[in-house]
Structure formats: structure tokens, C-alpha cells
Amino acid sequence: MTAWRFFPVEVRAIRRLTPTFLRVTFTGDGLGRFADNGYDQRIKLVLPLPDHGLERLPTGEDWYADWCALPDEHRNPMRTYTVRAVRPHLGEVDVDMALHGATGPASTWALSARPGDTACLIGPSADYDGVHGGVDYRPHDDADFVLIGADESAVPAVAAILERMPADARGEAYLEVPSPDDRLDLRKPDGVRVTWLARQGEPHGERLIPAVREATGRIVTPESARQELEDIDLDVDDLWDVPEEPGAGRLYAWLAGEAAVIRTLRRHLVAECGVDRRAVAFMGYWRQGRSEFIV
């Protein structure tokens, strides 16, 4: 029994939430066995090829290596998304997508998708009784305050995280989006404050970085010790670290978005403010100039 499986699906409904966010509802006979883990559960969305659909998609034990080995013209586009909602009793899964124009295969597909269009989800199997993986929001037991920083690529994950937080959770979330019209009505605990930061044509991080810096100035008690951080080369290294060991202190930080921005925020929290690095989950969901960063 494997933790993940292939779920052939088709589009049931499409709903434009804001100028940037689009919700795609998928349906399929197997989705009754799609595990509902909540939080920032990652999955793969595999898109059909013109003329060949999904018929060339490898599905065996070594499917990923086989997929990588295919010629470019035979390799189905595959992108990483967060599950927004699962309704096993209806055989439905919602995926919210941040659109950025017809500049990549996923955004191009989303802009033209219609009910009945086929795709494939690679996601957690409810028949597997172990840990599926792909959930990176894991606050340590002693944390009583959550700090979230994200751009539009991670807003769907943040929305799902907020919905699953305990009712007495406390924290602040800063969400940078392209436009004021991209604000969503999110369900969250009363003790968690969400601040929307409209970029309005400014560079990525222009609103998010100072907002998180200001928040840490209020939240974090100054420490005399500073932690050394390795220098991450974004052209070579993945900016992704979800600590396995529990951190110390009352704060837990979850940072996701454009890699250079997240690197800056992580360095501020850990190296400048002295937050235990084991209490900071940071994920470069994408990198400026690269179409797909998560693998």
C-alpha cells in the first residue's frame, strides 16, 4: 500500500474568486479515497497533452523517474498545488490557483479550462494508514503564537491552514497579493489577525518584508545570541526547510512564497531576531524567472 496514488479526474466546476485566484473543482470516481489531511497538503496536478491527453503519463512504482526520462513533447506538464478542500462523499477536490496570465502551462490551462476537461491529481491515499507527507505546517507544542508570511502563490495554503487551526489559536498572517481586489474572506480563529498587502505593481516582497519585520519587532523578545545561517544560492539550492525537531520559544513562523523574499524573511527572524531556526518553516514556492520551483 502506497501513501500516494494517481486520481484521474475531470473538471466539475470553475469559479473565479478574485482577479488573481481561480477555484477548480475536480471530480472522479476515486476521489472518495482521497485523504483529507488539511493544512498545507501539497499535491501534483498533471495536465493533458494536446492530442495525447494523459495516455503517456507513467503510473508505475518509478513513475517520476520515468516521467523525467520522457522526451519533452511526451511529458505531461506537472505542477504543485495545495488542496483547498476535500469532499470524499461527493468525490470532489477543490484546488485554488493563483493566475499570472498565459505564461506557463498551468496558468494557461486554467484560463481555458471548462467542465468535462480531464486531468490527474497525484495525492494522498485514504487507504494508507501512515504519514502521507506533504504537510509542512507543523508548529511545535510550546508555540502559542503563529506568524505567517506569504505571497499569492501560498494564499491557498494559508487559507487551508487557518481553517484547521484550533479555535483558541493566536497569531498574525501577512498576505501579499497583486491587487486590493484579491482579498478573500477567510475563515479563521478570532485570535488570528490577517493583513492583506496589495502590491499594486511594486516588486515582490515590497509590502511583505517590512510588514513581517514590523511584526517581529513587536512579537519577538530581543535575544543576545544570534544564529549563523548558511548562504543559500537560489540558482543551485532549494529554499525549503521544515524542521523535524521541535523548536524553542512561544513563536512558530511559517513563510512561503517567492524564494528570494522568503530567504530575506528567514534571515531576519533567525539571524537578526534570534528566533530558534527549528521554529521557522520556510518554503520557496517559486523563484522569479523560473516557472516551477517545487519538486
Describe the overall structure.
By secondary structure, the chain is of the alpha/beta class. The protein has 2 domains: 4-124, Elongation Factor Tu (Ef-tu), domain 3 (Beta Barrel), CATH 2.40.30.10; 145-286, Rossmann fold (3-Layer(aba) Sandwich), CATH 3.40.50. Helix content is 17%, strand content 29%. The protein has 5 helices and 12 strands. It has a 6-stranded antiparallel β-barrel. Strands 9-8-7-11-12-10 form a 6-stranded mixed sheet, with helices on both faces.
Could you write a compact summary of the structure shown?
This protein is α/β, with parallel strands linked by helices. It contains 5 helices and 12 strands.
